[in-house]
Amino acid sequence: MNKVLIALDCNTTDKKIAEVGFSFAKAMHAEVILLHAFLTPIDYSSVSYEPIMGFAGFSNLDTYQQNSEILTKTGLDFLDNVKKHLGDSSIETVVKEGEYAETILETANLYHADIIVIGSHSKKWLEKIVMGSTTEKVLHDTNIPLLIIPTKKK
């Protein structure tokens, strides 16, 4: 194992995912890449959007570029905080816009990741049918091994 890609979605469970993935990578003497993918800014203006990291979404979508830059900066700030928490300045951080599963897989292939670390929020069955599961999509569309961290609260 040379490279471990840890996909984070700015959820409260990311601390656990990052710590487990980082420990795994360090045990294998592998490089760590932290990835955060975000949807297009228009998705954050919808009524069904649930705020993350205190980001309440956009009420005004005047300029796509400006809003995309805000989401990129917010993601980079989040990943920098995770990097500081893990205490390793050699960790690479990547923020990309796009559909979650596709972006995770594209990034894993681009960086030649040997394994992808991802969380599973264990949503209810109806939610999975309606919106699908990022972890499930990644699992079915990759040949790269996955380390899936369950994050369901007991």
Summarize the structure.
This protein is an alpha/beta fold and 154 residues long. Helix content is 40%, strand content 19%.
Question: What layout of secondary structure does this protein have?
Answer:
Elements: E1 3-7, H1 14-27, E2 31-38, H2 64-86, E3 92-97, H3 100-110, E4 115-120, H4 125-131, H5 134-140, E5 146-150
Parallel strand pairs: 1-2, 1-4, 2-3, 4-5
Helix pairs in contact: 3-5
Pfam families: Usp
Family: Belongs to the universal stress protein A family.
Protein name: Universal stress protein
Walk me through what this model shows.
The structure is a single chain. The protein is an alpha/beta fold. The protein has one domain: Rossmann fold, CATH 3.40.50.620. The chain is built from five helices and five strands, in the order βαβαβαβααβ. Strands 3-2-1-4-5 form a five-stranded parallel sheet, with helices on both faces. Helix 3 packs across helix 5. The protein is globular. About 14% of the residues have low confidence. This is Universal stress protein. It comes from Flavobacterium myungsuense. Belongs to the universal stress protein A family.
CATH topology: Rossmann fold
Counted beta strands: 5
* Global geometry: globular
Number of helices: 5
So, the CATH homologous superfamily?
HUPs
Q: What is the CA-CA span between the terminal residues?
A: 32 Å
> In CATH's first tier, which class applies?
Alpha Beta
Report the portion of residues in β strands.
15-25%
Which H/E pattern describes the elements? EHEHEHEHHE
Strand order across the largest sheet = 3-2-1-4-5
Helix content: 40-55%
Q: Please indicate the count of domains.
A: 1
CATH hierarchy: architecture: 3-Layer(aba) Sandwich
The Cα radius of gyration reads: 15 Å
In terms of structural class, how would the helical and strand content be classed? alpha/beta
Low-confidence stretches: 43-64
Q: Mean pLDDT across all residues, rounded? A: 80
Characterize the largest beta sheet: strand count, sense, and whether it forms a barrel: 5 strands, parallel
